[in-house]
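Input (Cytochrome P450 6k1):
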Amino acid sequence: MFLTTWLIPDIIAVASLITVGLYFYYKLYLFKFWHKKGIFYVKPSFPTGNIMPIINGKLSLAEFFRDIYEHNKHHRLVGIYMLYKPYLIVNDPNLIRDILTKEFTNFHDRGIFYNEEVDPLSGHLFQLPGKKWRNLRVKLTPTFTSGKIKQFFPILNEAGNILAKYLEEEARKGSTIDVKDIFARYSTDIIMSVAFGISCDSFKEPNNEFRYWGKKIFDPKPLWNALILFAPQILNFFSISYTEKSVTKFFTNMFKQTVKYRESNNIERKDFLNLLIQLMKNGYVDADDESLSNNVNAAKNKLTMMEAAAQAYVFFLAGFETSSTTVTFCLYELAKNQDIQNKVREEIQTMIKKNGDLTYNALNDMNYLHKVISETLRKYPPVVILNRICTNDVKLSTTDFCIPKGTCIAIPVFGLHRDSNIFPNPEKFDPERFSEENIKTRHPYVYLPFGEGPRICIGLRFGLIQTKIAIINALLKNKFKFGPNTPSTLEFEKGSLILIGKGGIHLNIEPI
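Output:
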């Protein structure tokens, strides 16, 4: 006891010296990076740089980057510090095009957390770097052709019919519904069926285990999410898994058991799981009209069971949250703008009457619906920033600045989408922004809900069809209106990696 008391002053003195040393190291070295490079930057604070509003939950990720964009958009490039790391925010659409497309060979990695040894489910297409990403992308691209997605259509349509029956019952009761919850159930049923071959019927069993795990994965974790995006080196240094072990165990076991069952019983089903099994067996998927030949050499690089499980897992992540939030935001805006709701419903009714039923071709012919969803994705992009890391020293064509190898890049999607200079009156919900005439007047790299270039979202067509089927079945026989608890202005969930409305969105539903 005496020894411990005697040591306390020394411990405090050492801790103070370390703190003072770190302070000057940050101020005189780390936080001088952008100044030395001659790049305009936002003044950082010790020891978190500019990221504290995200860590303490004051701002959502979207709000944080929008604020920086709005205050500094007259600068083509803006430097910030996320913890100890310098980040380069790219505001200029021409430079964004260079990074995502023209100079892709120098910006092909996202620079976010990935470690297959400690976190096996992180080995999926979204997070993989370099050569691993390229090899996997080549294998997975044929699984998302329009031909393959057309094969999935009956599964999607069946889920849409179940959704329609549920909503009709709620409409007859004149219910106020939690839109996010209902469409998360719809998304869960689709993803579990297409990616894992499992029927879970979330409308009859809203608290099933798949819903439980989906909610658990997307629980807001401000500090944890900041580390995966902006300081993955910390997780790697301490060999920490971002994915909880219980989540990894559940999804890998479920995937292995389903694959084993199909193989033991010679079951084939036209779904994503079947395509993953082909990649495990052959190293390629069967050809269709858009992929006319198989790559027989790909057999040398068959997917392992864990690699395939990781792809099914990210398919679940993307479908569970992003599609359901897009539908939720879309119905919120349609309830707020009844004239737009009526117009899109008229198109839906006309096309279904013309075709006799909802078909794949009829869905793709609904032009106004596509505008409505595009405008939803403009106002509420699920992914609010695009991350890249510079893999070689490179000077972009229209600047005098050489971006050093290892520099982290952030493209402020949410800021661009809400920029009044690009989209006049950006808070207004206006599907006509996406008429052919208006699209031609804009720079193609200011609207980026799915990214752009070689790393554009591989599942965008599937996601759009999933979203459209939900909207069609919601609006065909029902009307949505604001209820007493519907907020006139939406707030966003703090600590979430993607854009989510805070506290759910409740709307009144009634039959038409």
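The longest strand covers residues 77-82.
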